[in-house]
Design goal:
Blueprint lengths: L3 H23 L11 H5 L27 E5 L18 H5 L5 E7 L6 E11 L8 H5 L5 E3 L15 E2 L1 H4 E3 H7 L1 H11 L5 H9 L13 H11 L7 H11 L5 H32 L3
Parallel strand pairs: 1-6
Antiparallel strand pairs: 1-4, 2-3, 3-5
The structure holds iron/sulfur cluster (SF4) (2 copies).
């Protein structure tokens, strides 16, 4: 019969209208008083009626998959091996896939060799252009860029303030875990470790093992795992020399190691000299 859909829709509206008053009476006095406010209960999916949130004094908790402008994951300041290190390798994939092209990356370079290194020197996102699509986070092969939950970014300055630089974009891994524990666990499970995928590879190459993935939703537990598996600090040089002198069973082992170090230093010096010659020739030719 024609018009049934309209009547059904109106029925839903009328039900919400009456339920709003019924629920207000039921929760009366519990909005701001008492140990257990009704606010957390009435944000749930089972809530009935219409409920007014007194923003900005009250804020609705966002779901874990909520996405606002991206941020960059870095190691925590108390990471045992590489505090504050970027997870981003400046591969540039995120800036290529970004539909409105609002990501700028400057790849870092080795100060001596001037060769590119897998770290961003600068990273900018124009948050006025970003459309919060989340492609960058989806495509990043290193789990280094994530969608944030912080939606209160309004300001009176829409020129520079809304262009987030690396310092503003960088947030510790523990923050990522606190806002999205399920996704952080899924990603760590897929990497097989709580560490960055490059660290996992390096440790494997060196014959060691990275911190294995253990399910947890607590960033503190992850940090404890990292600390427990961190390499022990090097002994003091004097103590090390004494222990080598006592422990080394093969005569001439220490001189052999020194000779290897000397060879390596000579090779590096040779390479530096060649690079310097190359740079000088380039400058002379005016390239
Ligand atoms: S895709 Fe990931 S690792 Fe590559 S530049 Fe973007 S944030 Fe960095
Ligand atoms: S969320 Fe989308 S628009 Fe925003 S920076 Fe990432 S890819 Fe670009």
């Amino acid at each position: 019969m024609y018009g049934m859909g309209i009547l059904k829709g109106l029925g839903v509206t009328i039900r919400h209208f009456f339920e709003s008053y019924a629920e207000d009476i039921r929760y009366s006095g519990r909005r701001y008083f008492g140990a257990k406010s009704d606010f957390s209960e009435r944000q749930g999916i089972d809530t009935r009626g219409v409920y007014t949130v007194q923003y900005p004094e009250e804020k609705i908790a966002v779901p874990e998959r909520f996405r606002f402008v991206p941020f960059l994951v870095v190691n925590d300041a108390d990471h045992p091996e590489a505090p504050g290190e970027d997870w981003c390798t400046s591969c540039g994939i995120c800036s290529k896939v970004c539909p409105p092209q609002c990501i700028w990356i400057v790849r870092g370079e080795d100060p001596v060799t001037k060769r590119p290194i897998p770290q961003p020197e600068a990273f900018y996102i124009d948050t006025d252009i970003c459309m919060n699509c989340g492609y960058c986070a989806e495509f990043c092969p290193f789990d280094a860029i994530k969608m944030d939950h912080d939606y209160e970014l309004a300001s009176y300055d829409r020129t520079t303030y809304h262009i987030h630089d690396k310092a503003r974009l960088s947030k510790p891994f523990s923050y990522w875990m606190s806002i999205a524990p399920t996704t952080a666990n899924e990603e760590a499970r897929d990497r097989g470790s709580w560490e960055h995928s490059d660290v996992v590879k390096e440790k494997k190459k060196a014959g060691g093992a990275a911190v294995a993935y253990t399910p947890t939703e607590s960033p503190a537990e992850v940090l404890a795992l990292l600390k427990a598996n961190a390499p022990k600090p090097e002994p003091e040089p004097e103590a090390a020399a004494a222990s080598t002198a006592v422990a080394s069973p093969v005569a001439g082992e220490a001189p052999a190691a020194e000779a290897a170090d000397g060879e390596k230093a000579a090779r590096l010096a040779k390479r530096e000299a060649a690079l310097a010659r190359k740079r000088a020739a380039k400058e002379q030719s005016g390239e």
